[in-house]
Amino acid sequence: MTKASEHTENPPAVVVSGLTKEFKLPMRAGRFRAVEDLSLSVGEGEVYGLIGPNGSGKSTTMKVMLGIVRPTKGSCEVFGMSSNSSKSRRLVGYLPENPYFYKHLTGVETLRFYGELCGLRGGALGKKIDQLLDMVGLQDAADRRLGGYSKGMLQRIGLAQAVIHDPKLVVLDEPTAGVDPQGSRQIRDFIMDLKSRGITVVLTSHLLEQVQEVCDRVGIISKGRMVREGRLDEMVAVEELTEIVLKSPSPQLIDGIRELVAKDADSGAELVRVGHPRTTLERLFIAATSGAEAGKIDNEKQEGGTQ
Ligand SMILES: Nc1ncnc2c1ncn2[C@@H]1O[C@H](COP(=O)(O)OP(=O)(O)OP(=O)(O)O)[C@@H](O)[C@H]1O
Ligand SMILES: [Mg+2]
Predict the structure, then answer these.
(1) What domains are there in the chain, each with its CATH number?
(2) Which residues line ligand 1 (CB under 6 A)?
(3) Does the pLDDT value for residue 286 go beyond 80?
């Protein structure tokens, strides 16, 4: 039995332990260390974000989880099984950073092709394809060839193929790269839907606001090393500040609060800012291009948050 599964009945979805990956350089130019002594663990049902600058080793680490790249040192387990085993691979769905698709196939044919590769057939596969096209918003383009798909549409068909075999872990390498804000939001909803069904997601993105919206935990990689890892809400909380959001307060109420805080000045309490919370450029863009209300604040996002 493996180390990760010794202590718990349900092993974590992913355990990377002391991973080092070196690539051989051509022309006997030596070796390049892309990942160095990196460890991380992703609990079942979590959404985990791997972030870091270009070339920091994110895609390489993901490829190790998929068994596409073999560790030079260290190990990776997926649900308690070595990521090199074909058994673990069956539980994983993958959207690569530069997905390649057959351009002459239509959306439906593409999903049928990947579904059949995973052993799905007949009515069950047809139903699954309809459901996935609906989930990624491509019903209208289902019978168009991929050669005519836009970047965002290709990304969405890529997401659909990644989950066609109902994987327990979905690895998404920059799922929103080149996708417009509406499309990104659909992809976010897609990821949240996976999470609500208990599916584990590991993703990378350079769009940190999106990472912040969907991830439970993040790991920050720099030059192949993990430099910070933890629960996102704990990492971004500003401990010494407390935010209270009031709807339509009267000027008198605000004055009353100011006075109360002033009375308590001895305790060190201080009113830092009174003003209207700002919406994000992303929400403004979506509102302006979809007819929704521009200033609408997402209650769920505001509650308990500290800026
Ligand atoms: N097959 C390979 N052969 C040689 N070097 C490689 C190979 N794959 C990756 N590398 C190198 O390893 C380093 C890490 O690459 P990786 O693709 O993991 O970075 P990344 O964090 O995903 O970057 P990005 O944000 O640009 O996608 C880079 O310097 C890259 O050039
Ligand atoms: Mg990458």
Answers:
(1) 14-236 (3.40.50.300), 251-302 (no CATH)
(2) 23, 32, 34, 52, 54-60, 97
(3) no
Report the predicted TM-score, pTM, of the whole model to 2 decimal places: 0.84
Residues near 79 by Cβ (< 8 Å), separated by ≥ 6?
A: 11, 13, 44, 88, 91, 168, 169
Cβ atoms within 10 Å of 73's Cβ, excluding its own: 13
Could you read off the pLDDT of 177-204 as tens digits, one per residue? 888 888 888 899 999 999 999 999 999 9
CA of 286 to the centre of ligand 2 (A): 27
- State yes or no: pLDDT of 8 exceeds 70: no
Q: Which atom of ligand 1 is nearest to the CA of 56?
A: 21
Residue 228 bridge partners (DSSP): 220
Distance CA 275, CA 177 (A): 34
Ligand nearest to the CA of 35: 1
Query: Each residue of 209-244: pLDDT tens digit?
Result: 889 999 999 999 999 999 999 999 888 888 888 889
At 263, list the tokens.
């009375």
